[in-house]
Amino acid sequence: MKAFRSPSRMPVNMLVTILVWALAFAACASETPDTTFDDSAGLVTITVLGDGFVRTGDRRIPVEAVVLELRQRTRAMTKDERLRFVVQLLADPQVEGSAAAAVARRGIDQLYDQLFIMGVKQVRVF
Questions:
Q1: Closest among 107, 96, 10 to 61, alpha carbons compared
Q2: What pLDDT shows up at residue 32?
Q3: How far is it, in rounded angstroms, from Cα 95 to Cα 26?
Q4: Average pLDDT, whole number, for the chain?
Q5: Would you list the DSSP string of 63-100?
Q6: Under the phi-then-psi rule, with left for phi > 0, alpha for psi from -120 to 50, and beta for the rest, what region is 23?
Q7: Which domain holds residue 95?
């Protein structure tokens, strides 16, 4: 039968390991996140409407069409360019709880998911 080992008799290397991990986590927690956006590879602003369409610039097109355009644009970019490409998603004001507000929310969610798949890491949602 093995004797019970109290925590005060932990092996020294285990204590050192725990201490190192604790310090590493504390260092990470003290860093402030970078909240600036680097749009040096481009900036696109998309207003999601409540009818399945979006407005980008002076054009009004279906959500699926803007996804296709963004996919073609990002495929032509290098990985570094995709990391510096910014997309701003805005919701057109809708009556809260209305069907149009639900459609706009789904459109923003769909665009956000597709941008993640495309490798775009800088997305602002307003």
A1: 107
A2: 56
A3: 44
A4: 85
A5: HHHHHHHHHHHHHTS-HHHHHT-EEEEEEPP--TTSHH
A6: alpha
A7: 43-125
Q: What percent of the chain has pLDDT over 70?
A: 73
Q: Is residue 101 part of a domain?
A: yes
CA distance 95 to 72: 34
Q: How many CB atoms lie within 10 A of CB 98?
A: 11
Flag whether 14 is in a domain.
no
Is residue 103 included in any domain, yes or no? yes
Task: Kindly report which listed range (2-16, 51-65, 72-86) carries the lowest average pLDDT score.
Answer: 2-16
CATH number at residue 110: 3.30.420
91 is written with which tokens? Answer: 């919701």
Matching residue, tokens 């504390």? 26
Domain assignment present for residue 30? The answer is: no
Query: Distance between CA atoms of 106 and 99, rounded to whole angstroms?
Result: 11
Q: What are the structure tokens assigned to 55, written together?
A: 């407005």
